[in-house]
Amino acid sequence: MVIVMQEGATDAQIQHVIDRLVASGFNVHRSTGESHTVLGAVGVHREFDHRDFELLEGVREVMRITQPFKLASRQFKPEGTIVDLGRGVKIGGPEVAIAAGPCSVESREQIFSVAESVAKAGAKILRGGAFKPRTSPYAFQGMGEPGLKLMREAADKFGLFTISEVMDASQIQMMLGYVDIFQVGARSMQNYYLLRALGEIRKPVLLKRGMSATMEELLMSAEYILAGGNYNVILCERGIRTFETYTRNTFDIAAIPVIKKLSHLPMLADPSHGTGRRDKVPPMARAAVAAGADGLLIEVHNDPDHALSDGAQSLEPATFTQLMAELRIIANTQPGCTSRAGTAPTLFAKRKAAVRWMKRSAVIWR
Ligand code: PEP
Ligand code: MN
Predict the structure, then answer these.
(1) Fewest CB atoms less than 10 Å from the CB: which of 169, 194, 221, 249?
(2) Residue 129 Cβ contacting ligand 1 at under 6 Å
(3) Residues 167, 172, 176, CA angle at the centre, nearest 5°?
(4) Which atom of ligand 1 lies nearest, measured to the CA of 272?
């Protein structure tokens, strides 16, 4: 149930509603918007009459959320969530945020070299796995904490934020010192114990869609983190398993507009895992931004042919730089994060420029 308070409702009125909800057995989550406060009431509770709440002072509207995901539902926060990393970098606003870097941190030379190139190209977040979920137990498993340390140093040198995968709740405390965003991998999307533990912290969490998960299951997993009180959740489409074998996964671009309508959470797209092939990453990255993704997670390696994991889908730095230029046209952007907002005349001018560019370049239609 969502309770929308009137504009200008007093703190005392809001607190009274919260107290009544708690007394009725609900957990209450408060979202303070620009004009009014919304209270999300969730939990297992006995029968109640929602009209009792409509009558309380300061209440504008009471709505039942029919979807199984409550706090992740757009009804709870119609204006959308913006995850603010600091220094002006936000995920979910008018900007398109780009996270780029190697699949795995492999060495000091590698992570510093990639960090420098992606920062120069305009990325704001450095990605790199230190704990790798590999199909084979004999494959490179990641450098662990020393890898995170190198990534943090490289990110700090080039003014980047960091994102890295957490595979187990026992790693969270240690990782807090190195990462700005915790990544939950596709294989861990339904590790509910891990999700609950991430609900206890307040750092942003990027939750990837499981390779056989429905959109609803993804949102239910997000709900675990939100229910713990961590509202800094970012979703990520990274492709799902289908009968198709030409690409590593089937990149479900339709999930972007569908989920953005169902949920207020920002959504990134990962065309690297979505396709598994370097040459298919730029077109799918452009398509994801055109479909409304709030940002991208892209694998970039200084020497992809010798990468210890996912080399085949990693872009060379020069290709990444070119892709960033193409994204700026689609997203109507500034370097790094690109603004999608604009007045109608500027958008029109941008569109004309984009059409001119597309006519000149066969790249986008490849
Ligand atoms: C990764 O980002 O390197 C990764 C392992 O992704 P996923 O969990 O989507 O397979
Ligand atoms: Mn990878």
Answers:
(1) 169
(2) yes
(3) 125
(4) 2
Q: State the closest ligand 1 atom to the C-alpha of 310, by its place in the atom list counted from 1.
A: 3
Is domain 83-361 in CATH 3.20.20.70, yes or no? yes
Task: Share the mean pLDDT of the chain.
Answer: 92
Strands 95-101 and 125-127: parallel
Residue 70: its pLDDT value, please? 94
Alpha carbons 223 and 283: distance in angstroms, whole number: 32
Residue 258 · residue 215 · CB < 8 Å: yes
C-beta of residue 133 within 8 angstroms of C-beta of residue 161: no
Output the CA 209–ligand 1 centroid distance in Å.
Answer: 10
pLDDT at 349: 55
d(CA 356, CA 228): 49
Beta bridge partners, 310, equal none
Q: Is the CB of 103 under 6 A from ligand 1?
A: yes
CA count, 13 A, side-chain hemisphere, 48:
21
Q: Which atom of ligand 1 is nearest to the CA of 297?
A: 2
Matching residue, tokens 């990453």 = 281
- β-pairing, 295-299 vs 89-91, is unpaired
* 2-5 and 37-42 strand pairing: antiparallel
**Residue whose tokens read 């533990």:** 197
CA distance 348 to 153: 42
What amino acid is encoded at 193 in this protein? Y
Find the largest Cα–Cα distance for the chain.
66
- Measure the CA–CA gap between 40 and 4, rounded to whole angstroms: 9
Domain boundaries, the chain: 2-63, 83-361
pTM above 0.70, yes or no: yes
Q: Cα separation of 286 and 364, whole Å? A: 8
Classify residue 203 by its DSSP letter. Answer: S
Local confidence band at 355 (pLDDT 50, 70, 90 cut-offs): low
What stretches of 158-311 show up as alpha helix (H) in DSSP? 172-175, 192-199, 215-227, 255-262, 271-275, 281-290
In whole angstroms, give the CA distance from residue 44 to residue 1: 12
What is the CATH number assigned to the segment(s) 2-63? 3.30.70.1140
